[in-house]
Automatic annotation (TrEMBL):
Keywords attached to this entry: Membrane, Transmembrane, Transmembrane helix
InterPro entries (UniProt xref): DUF3433
Nucleotide-binding found in the keyword field: no
Keyword field contains Membrane: yes
Protein name as catalogued: Uncharacterized protein
Pfam families: DUF3433
Transmembrane segments: 20-45, 66-89, 109-128, 135-161, 501-522, 617-640, 660-683, 728-751, 1068-1097
Biological source species: Penicillium hordei
Length: 1233
């Protein structure tokens, strides 16, 4: 067994030592980790590019807190992990390179003896490696700098929050089928009659059906989406009208004017003007004949002379169909649609006849067309973009659009009284529709005269707009089709930035490639190491075993012991290290580059300074610079915490803002990497200084000095070796340097992308209306809500200024709106909101339906308040099949006389039955509903257009039982019910039409029902129908009150409008400081500054020697000729660690570094066993007692071994010194008896 054990021991000794960080398993594993990391980044980048983001949220508020922190800190944490693992490899590669160079069989320049790349700060390692032509180290150190500083910085801004557009396929409903010509004819007739007979009317058509100023198209159901940025794209048929006009200047126009006086008042004279024009000819006519018109018209104006302008237009032949006289007599003008005339006269006198030369007549031909187009709808169903395929263009036939009825309606609307129009006009609505130009205007005020082209364009614009409105109205709302559409929505996404990702991948791939190559290289490099050379003892063992005793460094040890590192390096440039046989073994000898070199060249160069430059952290100028930089960083973070931000990222288009954004995302991590590098350099130097300072104090045990091994000198490595027992200052510094990893991580989230709401008092908000509701109008008002119904088909809840789904709010005027054009500014204030509520119950069918002698069906029911009321059941589609039907019915005259009945609403829903079939629970549901109106003060948030963003009742409202309660009377509800139900009766001629089973409130109710309770069944569930009816009634009432607010509330005069307190709200999405991250960074930076200051204060003169022995060559002159070196040479190689293992077992020896006289009486620096001849140098050495030693190096005296293994700055050393001080004070100050 003994020969086998001997062979195993020899094999162990022959196998060179290699740190685990330079072995194949670690290098390949680290390279594999980097490759996986890079692949993961590329996968994330590809997924983000293809899907417009990694994860998509509708709003920033939907992002979970975990995700909002993870996307910031996970990439930075992974980069810190990668950099830390990389630093383990780099630290050992840099510190061991000189030993690998010495191990080369061909030898190496002697400068490698004085090289230690691990102590080079920043780029100096790369510079030194390039100068020494150590290209492997040059590549490693250069890549290390880039890797350590830029990888965390790049990954800190890898994932950002951004707005992106997401395209989704949607199934939507559309109603593209037009009503038949007969239905259109009857509808036009009913509408024309309404305008002829109604003194006051309000319609939502002008607002809701003018979804485009250019085209009409079928209604499309917008997907339910709270995102106001959504755009829906479809392909549909669009319709439009074109008016082609001819203009002539007639010369034969005359007028005759007479003045009349009111006989009853004997004043108030009026001017009667008779206008005449004959033979006004236009080129285009019928059958090659010109269109010829004669004009005759009488006008009345106030009895005053002066300039006069006559404006007149009319649709062709509309008067004859309506039984009225036309001012035009035409010949061969059948193809034209309208005629018009504009006459200016400069003066007029009684009984005067004049010819005017300033007159223009025009005739226009209307062309109606359709084509296929790609359309884009915004969230309010308005057409934002239309791409028309003109190759599919065709003319619209009269069978598809009934022209004559359209002309009659336009004529009636142009003659509708101006007073009626002004009653229902609400300037808050900002309606895109055009008011009808009056058919006849005789204007005496010359300032109000209109230019001819402006007048003609006004008529053309009105004509085209009315065509769009009524064609939109004629799409059959009862015949939907399903179609595909694409929805583009601007959402918030976690997006991977391509450039940082690609650059990070390049770094990781470069590092992985290098690691794979180094795994091969280091496994084949020449190596003589048998243990880690990180300790002084290991280096002394290498010197004693591998270096010859007659080399210049040992022979001239007295001169070289006082030399600086620069002197030694300059001297070594003339020498090289070669392997030579010595005493039967290979040893390293230091020889001149050439034997012919003179002794003068080989002498030690003259020193420019007596000592090496001290480390940067104990040099006053550099210390001040470092403290200034750290303090500046501290101040910058504090300033960021209080003030700095990049607001509105989406508008950051300038280069300056982009650079600022990149700095805020990546800059803090870059700065923290520099701070960590600075502290790492401090810890590396401090580890060496602490060891040699302890030796300079004397009485140093081997385990606390020569055997102390900090490995690769990384802060984590030093902390691991030093935590249990070691200098307190070094432990604190290594802890703070390790915490620098935390600083790097939190720096990645120092500026977060957030949505912040800034508020400040708003100025210029005034109330427009008195909150006291007026009595209901005495005149009947018709409210046409077909446009409202069509809009409810589009998006469910129409968007109106100062209205939401349940309430109409009294608007507030903003007098500072023009001065503040920032579209991100919204407002919050308190205003009055008025809404309706509906109380409904199902009506039983037992003995409720009767048939009187006229054949009409009546319905007796009991209102929710207990009143007996009656309604007349609808009978519109004779003997027709009713698939689904909802009708709103008002009480008949007998029951309407009762005060409570006239405010009730009766709703009848039927399905899958014949009109003549009995009404029962199998095919019908009947509801009796009683509405009530309530007002309250609401705290509303609204944008600059008055769109309500949110609303909630105020906590202490004064409206309950307040000054409006007594005015919210039953008459208001009754007037409203009559206004909406009266329009239903005007469409009674529309029998047998597919939509005649619904009135427009009923159609709106069924769409609400289907939206709330999607189902393929045609039947209606009573409780669900009640919910849909209540929701619909609230929407209709709030829209009605919004359109007709002036009828119910008194508008303030502009000068008397009271001011309203409000708040201006600015929502900004940008980069804002993270308070938690910055506070952590401030604490860590403050501790870093404290440790730098403390190191400077306590270690400026802690170690005094010509040089800091950071390399193997600088140590040789200090140990050459020492007794311990002689002992080392006599020790056999025992165990895996060679002589160092045997040496560390000698705990009874103590060591000191200082000046010692040689045989010639010269003082030299020497590291040896403790001798009385050594002179301590340093501020603290005078406190260490010197004891006699025997020749064997043993220290005598009882106090000499009181604390042989404790450093004065270790934990145990501090405790022992505290106990000694307490005993000394107890002796000096005895307690009184």
């Amino acid at each position: 067994m003994e020969p086998q054990e001997s062979e195993e021991r020899n094999a162990t000794l022959d196998r060179p030592w290699m740190p685990w960080t330079l072995r194949i398993p670690f290098l390949c594993s680290l390279a594999g980790f980097f490759l996986l990391f890079a692949i993961a980044l590329e996968i994330l980048r590809q997924v983000s590019e293809r899907n417009h983001g990694l994860v998509i949220y509708k709003t920033i508020d939907e992002i979970p807190k975990v995700i909002s922190g993870a996307y910031i800190y996970v990439p930075v944490s992974m980069s810190v992990l990668a950099v830390t693992l990389w630093q383990f490899f780099v630290g050992d590669a840099l510190r061991l390179e000189p030993y690998f160079q010495l191990a080369r069989l061909e030898g190496a320049p002697a400068t490698v003896l004085f090289t230690n790349y691990n102590f080079s700060f920043g780029v100096m390692a790369s510079v030194a490696a390039a100068r020494n032509r150590h290209w492997l180290i040059f590549v490693i150190s250069t890549l290390s700098i880039i890797f350590r500083i830029f990888l965390p910085s790049l990954l800190s801004g890898l994932v950002v929050l951004t707005e992106t557009s997401v395209v989704q396929s949607r199934d939507v409903s559309s109603w593209p089928k037009l009503l038949d010509q007969d239905t259109q004819k009857k509808w036009f007739a009913a509408e024309t009659i309404r305008y002829a007979n109604t003194s006051a009317m309000s319609t939502t058509d002008e607002f809701f059906l003018s979804r485009s100023s250019d085209y009409a198209t079928a209604t499309v159901s917008m997907p339910l989406d709270e995102n106001e940025t959504s755009v829906l794209s479809t392909h549909q048929t669009v319709y439009w009208s074109e008016l082609v006009c001819q203009n002539v200047s007639p010369k034969n126009i005359t007028w005759v004017q007479q003045t009349t006086t009111n006989k009853e008042t004997d004043h108030d004279s009026r001017n009667l003007t008779q206008w005449r024009a004959t033979q006004i000819k236009f080129a285009a006519g019928e059958k090659d004949h010109p269109c010829t018109i004669n004009f005759a018209l009488n006008t009345t104006t106030p009895g005053q002379s002066g300039p006069l302008q006559l404006q007149y237009w009319e649709p062709l032949r509309a008067q004859s169909r309506l039984g009225e006289d036309s001012a035009f007599q035409t010949s061969h003008c059948e193809s034209h649609a309208l005629l018009g005339l504009l006459i200016d006269i400069n003066d007029n006198h009684e009984d005067a006849t004049k010819h005017s030369s300033n007159a223009t007549a025009f005739v226009c031909n209307a062309i109606y067309r359709s084509a296929e187009a790609g359309l884009k709808f915004d969230v309010n169903a308005s057409i934002t973009e239309a791409t028309v395929d003109f190759s599919s263009q065709r003319d619209l036939r009269e069978a598809e659009f009934f022209h004559p009825g359209f002309y009659d309606l336009l004529y009636r609307k142009s003659r509708w009284p101006l007073s009626s129009r002004s009653q229902t006009q609400n300037d808050m609505m900002e309606s895109p529709a055009k008011l009808a130009p009056a058919g006849l205007v005789a204007n005496l005020d010359q300032e109000k005269w209109i230019d001819f082209l402006e007048y003609q364009n006004e008529i053309i614009g009105f004509w085209n707009n009315q065509f769009i409105i009524y064609l939109n109205k004629f799409f059959d709302a009862n015949d939907p089709i399903s179609m595909k559409a694409s929805q583009v929505t601007v959402v918030v996404a976690l997006d991977v930035l391509s450039k940082p990702a690609i650059m990070s991948e390049a770094l990781l791939f470069a590092a992985a490639t290098l690691l794979f190559l180094l795994a091969v290289v280091y496994s084949r490099r020449a190596n003589f190491l048998q243990s880690d050379p990180g300790s002084i003892a290991a280096q002394c063992a290498i010197i004693s075993k591998l270096f010859t005793t007659d080399n210049p460094l040992t022979q001239s040890s007295e001169k070289f012991s006082h030399a600086t590192s620069r002197q030694l390096l300059r001297w070594a440039r003339n020498f090289r290290c070669e392997w030579a046989d010595s005493s039967g073994s290979k040893r390293i000898n230091i020889v001149p580059l050439s034997p012919s070199m003179s002794n003068r060249v080989l002498e030690l160069p003259v020193a420019r300074r007596r000592t090496d430059p001290r480390p940067h952290f104990v040099i006053l100028p550099l210390f001040l610079v470092e403290c200034t930089l750290l303090t500046g960083t501290l101040v910058m973070y504090g300033f960021a915490l209080s003030d700095l931000s990049l607001k509105d990222i989406n508008n950051a288009q300038s280069n300056k803002q982009f650079v600022l954004m990149v700095f805020l995302l990546c800059g803090p991590t870059f700065i923290s990497s520099l701070v960590s590098s600075l502290l790492a350099s401090l810890v590396r130097h401090l580890a060496i200084i602490e060891t040699w300072g302890r030796l300079q104090q004397g009485m140093a045990g081997i385990r606390q000095s020569l055997a102390k091994n900090y490995g690769s000198l990384l802060p984590i490595s030093i902390l691991f070796h030093n935590l249990c027992q070691g200098p307190l200052l070094l432990t604190a510094a290594s802890i703070l340097c390790t915490l620098g990893l935390v600083l790097t991580i939190v720096s990645g989230g120092m500026f977060e992308q957030q949505m912040k709401l800034y508020s400040q008092p708003a100025t210029g908000l005034n109330a427009e209306y008195n909150g006291t509701m007026l009595d209901s109008p005495t005149a009947d008002l018709q409210f046409d809500g077909v446009g409202l119904m069509m809009m409810s088909m589009n998006r469910g809840t129409p968007i109106l200024p100062w209205q939401d789904a349940t309430h109409s709010f009294l608007p507030l005027a903003n007098t500072n709106l023009e001065a503040n054009q920032d579209s991100n500014v919204n407002y919050a204030a308190v205003t009055v909101g008025i809404g309706a509520s509906l109380r409904c119950h199902q009506v039983s069918f037992d003995q409720s339906s009767i048939e009187n002698g006229s054949g009409k069906k009546s319905w007796n029911y009991t209102s929710p308040s207990g009143l007996a009321c009656a309604v007349e059941a609808p009978n519109r589609a004779k003997s027709g099949l009713i698939k689904r039907s909802i009708s709103y019915l008002e009480p008949i005259d007998v029951s309407a006389a009762k005060t409570g009945c006239q405010s009730t609403v009766f709703v009848l829903a039927r399905w899958e039955t014949m009109e003549s079939s009995p009404i029962n629970s199998q095919n019908s549901v009947a509801l009796s509903c009683e509405p009530s109106i309530g007002a309250d003060e609401f705290e509303v948030a609204f944008d600059q257009k008055g769109i309500i963003l949110s609303s909630k009742p105020t906590t202490a409202s004064a409206m309950h039982g307040g000054h409006t309660a007594h005015n919210l009377s039953l008459s208001t509800v009754t007037h409203f019910n009559r206004a909406i139900l009266s329009t239903i009766g005007s469409y009674s001629p529309l029998e047998n039409a597919s939509f005649s089973h619904y009135d427009w409130p009923g159609m709106m109710t069924v769409h609400t029902y289907d939206g709330l309770y999607p189902s393929s069944q045609l039947s209606f569930h009573p409780s669900s129908l009640i919910s849909a009816t209540q929701s619909t009634y609230q929407q209709i009432f709030s829209a009605y009150l919004t359109f007709n607010r002036d009828l119910y509330f008194e508008r303030y005069a502009e000068s008397a409008a009271p001011s309203v307190e409000g708040t201006a709200l600015t929502s900004l999405w940008g980069l804002f400081p993270s308070a938690v991250s910055i506070i952590i960074a401030l604490v860590l930076l403050s501790l870093d500054i404290l440790i730098v200051v403390f190191v400077f204060a306590t270690r400026s003169s802690y170690f005094r020697a010509p040089r800091i022995p950071a390399s193997l060559g600088s140590l040789i002159p200090w140990v050459a000729g020492s007794e311990m070196m002689a002992d080392l040479r006599a020790m056999p190689l025992i165990g895996k660690y060679g002589s160092q293992g045997a040496w560390e077992q000698q705990d009874d020896r103590f060591y000191r570094f200082g000046l010692s006289p040689d045989l010639n009486g010269h003082k030299r620096w020497l590291l040896d066993y403790q001798h009385s001849g050594l002179q301590e140098v340093g501020s603290e050495l005078t406190q260490v007692p010197i004891h006699d030693q025997s020749s064997s190096g043993q220290i005598v005296g009882s106090e000499a071994i009181a604390s042989p293994n404790n450093s004065p700055w270790s934990f145990s050393g501090i405790i022992q010194r505290t106990v000694k001080s307490a005993r000394w004070w107890a002796k000096r100050s005895p307690l009184p008896p």
